[in-house]
Inverse folding.
């Protein structure tokens, strides 16, 4: 859509858009774009919330008032929480200790090995389809590299494009594995499971905290761990 906007603008048709991946919008620099910190596939937030969706659309249309472009603005709100009465269900009980390993590489590898059978099952049910793979790296390579950042205290700033795509691939892999159990398909529940019960979520929070203290990387930190994810973790800890 960023590319199409250029052609429309050449014919004096003003355009505005909504972006779910800030880096893509920043690199392509469309005339006007509103970045929203929502899950992929939900550019307006959750379903059945017209007031919130109208605010998102109004913010995107307000970019027409900009004197010149390219314009890339951030939507200031996170999407509302989608409440559900469904019980949380997951094929792996993450909250129980599953390993005596101490390094991040060993611990994350152990967790990944628990998830692989469920991910493969879900992929077979989808006839081989998966949303993971944007980074062009295997899940094993992604987990190994993320663990290395943590074990060596090396801030991942040398290849931010790969880092962003890789972390999204890892989240997608986990969510598709969790979804393989048919008892719970609610997206909000799946997100809660991921952010409150997995070691990978703990790792992403640590990496986000490191990035947030680095000049110019605050937005990357927010994309990595949205505010809503931190709220989920805080509420989960308070409930315990």
């Amino acid at each position: 859509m960023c590319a199409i906007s250029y052609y429309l603008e050449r014919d004096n048709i003003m355009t505005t858009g909504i972006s779910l991946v800030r880096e893509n919008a920043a690199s392509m620099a469309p005339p006007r774009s509103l970045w929203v910190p929502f899950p992929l596939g939900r550019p307006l937030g959750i379903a059945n919330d017209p007031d919130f969706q109208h605010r998102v659309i109004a913010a995107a249309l307000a970019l027409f008032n900009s004197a010149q472009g390219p314009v890339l603005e951030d939507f200031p709100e996170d999407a509302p929480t989608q409440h559900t009465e469904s019980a949380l269900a997951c094929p792996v009980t993450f909250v129980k200790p599953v390993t005596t390993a101490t390094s991040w590489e060993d611990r994350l590898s152990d967790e990944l090995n628990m998830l692989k059978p469920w991910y493969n099952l879900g992929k077979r049910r989808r006839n081989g389809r998966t949303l993971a793979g944007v980074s062009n790296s295997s899940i094993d390579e992604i987990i190994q590299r993320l663990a290395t950042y943590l074990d060596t205290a090396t801030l991942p700033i040398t290849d931010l494009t790969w880092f962003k795509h890789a972390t999204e691939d890892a989240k997608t892999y986990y969510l598709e594995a969790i979804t393989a159990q048919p008892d719970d398909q609610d997206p909000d529940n799946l997100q809660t499971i991921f952010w409150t019960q997995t070691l990978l979520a703990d790792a992403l929070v640590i990496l986000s905290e490191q990035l947030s203290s680095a000049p110019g990387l605050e937005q990357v930190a927010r994309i990595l761990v949205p505010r809503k994810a931190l709220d989920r973790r805080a509420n989960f800890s308070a409930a315990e």
Summary: The chain has ten helices and three strands. Residues 104-239 form one domain. Confidence is low (pLDDT under 50) at residues 84-89. The chain has two domains: 2-74, 104-239.
